[in-house]
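[Automated response] Your request has been received and processed.

Submitted sequence:
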Amino acid sequence: MSGLGKRRIKLQEGGQRWQRWDTRLRSRHNRRKIAARSAERRVLYQVNKLLRDINRSAELAQRCRTESEAVLQHYDLTAEEREAIEGWQVRKLYDMGANPLLLLVYSMATGKDMRAYVAAINEKS
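Generated structure:
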């Protein structure tokens, strides 16, 4: 475990229990990087949640086809994500980190076929 950057410190009281500290978290720089990654995950969570919800509900998929703006207002999306979803920019969503299987199901639910999905995902940025 010492090779993974973990250190064991014997507790003062009790003496028989050990506590593990991740030394990487002590650095201020690393804490900022971790906070930035968690913010990215939150955003990706909203995109993937939308795609999953469309997969689960045929009614929501239909509403997304007809009134996408009303559906998208229920999710905490950035302007870039909203634009990519409204414009069906599959490659851009994939590059942002959206789940490719959910993107496929989203494409099918919104009336696109498999060939259109493959062409869109293989598109050069």
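Summary generated for your ticket: The chain has one domain: 26-121. The longest strand covers residues 6-10.
If you did not submit this request, please reply to this message.
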